[in-house]
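A common beginner's mistake is to predict each chain separately and then try to dock the pieces by hand. The better habit, illustrated here, is to supply every component at once so that their relative placement is modeled jointly.
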Amino acid sequence: MAAVSETYVSDAAAFAVLHKTLTIHTAHQTQFMDVTRLIEGAVQQAGLHSGTVTVQTRHTTTGILINEYEPLLLADFRALFERLAPTRFEYAHDDFLRRTENLTADERPNGHAHCRAALLRSSETVSVRQGLLDLGQWQRVIFVEFDGAQRRQLTLTMIGTPMPTRVLAGRGSEAISR
Amino acid sequence: MAAVSETYVSDAAAFAVLHKTLTIHTAHQTQFMDVTRLIEGAVQQAGLHSGTVTVQTRHTTTGILINEYEPLLLADFRALFERLAPTRFEYAHDDFLRRTENLTADERPNGHAHCRAALLRSSETVSVRQGLLDLGQWQRVIFVEFDGAQRRQLTLTMIGTPMPTRVLAGRGSEAISR
Amino acid sequence: MAAVSETYVSDAAAFAVLHKTLTIHTAHQTQFMDVTRLIEGAVQQAGLHSGTVTVQTRHTTTGILINEYEPLLLADFRALFERLAPTRFEYAHDDFLRRTENLTADERPNGHAHCRAALLRSSETVSVRQGLLDLGQWQRVIFVEFDGAQRRQLTLTMIGTPMPTRVLAGRGSEAISR
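With all components supplied together, the output reads:
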């Protein structure tokens, strides 16, 4: 029924934590943004070889979703969240006559967006192997905006071992790092 | 469309794992408890400087939610879960005439609470930077009780590098740690 | 209201990342498979003593759920997902006359399975202490199949410190590792 197919043990000598903050700009009220390459680029720029990257949104009306990025499926996701937490519904959070807390000057009705975000994740942790996100064939990391357009931030926390230092050709044996 | 705004690489010399178990007591059947300060206090007490803290519930009728902690929004979340998994609904798990497994002396109907918990997370991983939880302006870590009142446990697993040892004033240069 | 009940600091000398890929075979369209022992066995085989294991599905019509594994409750979960994302519903993803992307030779209607997977997690991170998954009394790690029967892969990423090397009896003091 089940088989363990492979084990890879990294070099334990040089563990590191790396933090990155990514800024993205959404253009629509509801939007699915494929951030897979953005995250993989950041992982490679940081030099993480083996470990995990935790992708975290810094917002309460957005979420992280790992699924297939196919346009018609995104329409299905949109319809799903509209059924589960309809835009046109009376949310107490949007009753500005009653509400007294966390009010800002530019407050707008977004109770539906909070409820939808509650059904997604704030963070997902993805395996990194040899500098690549270890995702399945159809898996993409999707940033989901439920209350755009806005400037948004994602934080990446990478934990693991760095890329082995490469031997630089033509620089003599003293350039070969241990 | 996207920009990597900062990179911070921690001291890789002293990696550690720290485990903590927090005990909390809920007072109501459905309850949203802001545990952000509790977790941040535990992180600081443990001395984690840079890394991640994984917040995990040890129960199957509770969940972890990172969202805004605003009283009217919590009422919206309560209504959301009541719509998605109503309290008054026939759950097979609550049919004690049919059920034969996992029965305890104090068994009570809580099928709705399991279904709601299934729509939340058992764990969320939060970035820790300079001893602080790296959350956005409105983000709070919320422990969600769907079958209270009960005594509950949260486990925290912290991975990363410890606080740099502080220079103690007035103790001479030999007290300055490297 | 809350108490920190214990702290355990691991040996920080020998951090490691370990990757494993598990292959499982599902037998039904919708299936809940308890993979707790499978994961714990892999953790022990890998020799992880203290840290975390991130359990990640490599598929977009499956999910990871940590909850109670009780047969009647599983029937409730099945009914829950059927209510939230019904099998008999028109999903744009399944409109093969309109769809142009990500089409394979063996494409079958599975929009409902993607929508259900979107409501679960792709990954959960579980604490490991003394080589055991640190789960509560009723918690099981459940692999949820929404589009079976299929061959499926789970990846495990373990981060932490290895088992202390055991003193081997009868082999003399030189066999005692530091």
